[in-house]
Amino acid sequence: xxxxxxxxxxxxxxxxxxxxxxxxxxxxxxxxxxxxxxxxxxxxxxxxxxxxxxxxxxxxxxxxxxxxxxxxxxxxxxxxxxxxxxxxxxxxxxxxxxxxxxxxxxxxxxxxxxxxxxxxxxxxxxxxxx
Length: 130
Ligand code: C2G
Fold this sequence. Notes:
By secondary structure, the protein is α/β, with parallel strands linked by helices. Helices cover 35% and strands 22% of the residues. A five-stranded parallel sheet has the order 3-2-1-4-5, with helices on both faces. α1 (15-25) links the parallel β1 (3-8) and β2 (30-36). The longest helix is centred in the first third of the chain and has 11 residues, at 15-25. The radius of gyration is 14 Å and the shape is globular. The structure holds [cytidine-5'-phosphate] glycerylphosphoric acid ester.
């Protein structure tokens, strides 16, 4: 059985996330999702996600395409996570195109087209402006 792995924050879960997870799941028999922790987000973007990591993980875990979730504590552990979870394929949206090619000796690496015109940042902006 082929195991697929993907990573993300999945904050303010939206249709673009759903489509990414659905398409990722089609690359194998099970899908494992690394949820970026609140601390990892803070270190990347100098702001915390709207929803706490436990809640983001619970939402993603409840989706029918997802078999397992774990917390992604650091971007530098990507190779360890792939090995630990015995992943055969790493799938990411193409905003990360090329950035995970260094894992190609461990597993297949696939980048999927992002769903246009939807993002957490934009949703937050719209809500803020009222
Ligand atoms: N995505 C998408 N279409 C959108 C928005 C997001 O396909 N309109 C995809 C992204 O390309 C990514 C996944 O959904 O593959 C999760 O997106 P984010 O939560 O924004 O993930 P990010 O914060 O970039 O975290 O180790 C990698 C990081 O943890 C990725």
